[in-house]
Known about the structure:
By secondary structure, the chain is mostly helical.
Amino acid sequence: MAAALAECDMPTVLAEVRRENGWTQAQLAEAVGYSQSWVSKVLRGRQPLTVEQVREIAGRIGVPLHMLRFGVRGDEDPTKRRDFGKAVVLTALAGVALPKRAEVDETVAPTLTSITGAQRRLESSTPARELARGAAAHVDLAKRVLSRAHRDIAGDIRAGLSEAAGFAAWLHADMHDSGTARTYYRLAIESARQAGHNLLAAYMIGSLAAFEIDAEEPSIALNLVGTARRELGDRPPATARAWISSIEALGHASAHDRHAAETALRTAEAAVRASERAAAPPWPWVFPFDQAKLAGYRALVMVRLGRTEEAETAFAESLSSTQPAVKQRGVLMTEMATVKAMAGHPEEAFKLASSALTIGLTYGSERVVHRVRRFRRQYTGPVIAAVREFDERLQATLL
């Protein structure tokens, strides 16, 4: 319990509270004021917690906040909110997540997953280069743990390794380090398959497909989509089907196959309607794939098909329902800039591109900066004052 408190490892804290009180999972859920299914996900490391949820749960089970690196509201150092995530990330670097004894028990896999979850929460507002070292160390840690694990718990640890490698791949993709990103994606896919988790394997393969579309390799991406579908089997969850079909639509659009892209979008739309009847998205999907997310994919598809009015409508639908994380907002700005340029509004286009460049530079996202550069390279319209100002700024980033 002391180690779990020091690491802000809430799954282990709750498990120990439950064990000490002799509670069932339902009794623990009642004590913390959440549903049993939600608590089950927390205990398995599948449900990330916000700072406010940690405060609330700690109060209900009688754990002093200062033992979780928190002060009472209004009295804490303002940096402690950030320390919640960073303390967990640093455990990977320090190696303290490894048990002192030689054995690896069933609590280790949720701990590995909770570390990855904390890293993911930091990613939206932290430069990838600041997280990459910790993410790589966490992957190495998971490998060492796996080498010491008994056969009956090795599957869960392999799944934790897969998630850690998938996150490391995402960070390196954001750094525009394609070779390293692909290496980590391969590890993520292999580990998920060895764990026997078809959904996780399909998720990692689909993520690699999306990466290859960004890398302008649509034929490779579409082959990966087919592989992901085989991993999902004959009756995949609706969320998985909607997501994979949306990636497929984007791949076809990138290959300029209008008919195939539209067919895939229709499949995704039907799957989204089916997913709305489901109680919750299946792990490893954390959030439902809803109409707003589908609208975002539809917008990207229409940009690639050159259908500007439909792209603008879809972007408006998507952004009216969701607020993307800041780096993703930079990506979307470059796409919207493309739409404006295609529609003959270069001043608006380069204003969006300039805002995206600011985000890319501020948050150290080479992925966003690369997209901005690609937008400029593909622009063939008139060189107005806004274009010249943008070119000067883009050149300044090199110096």
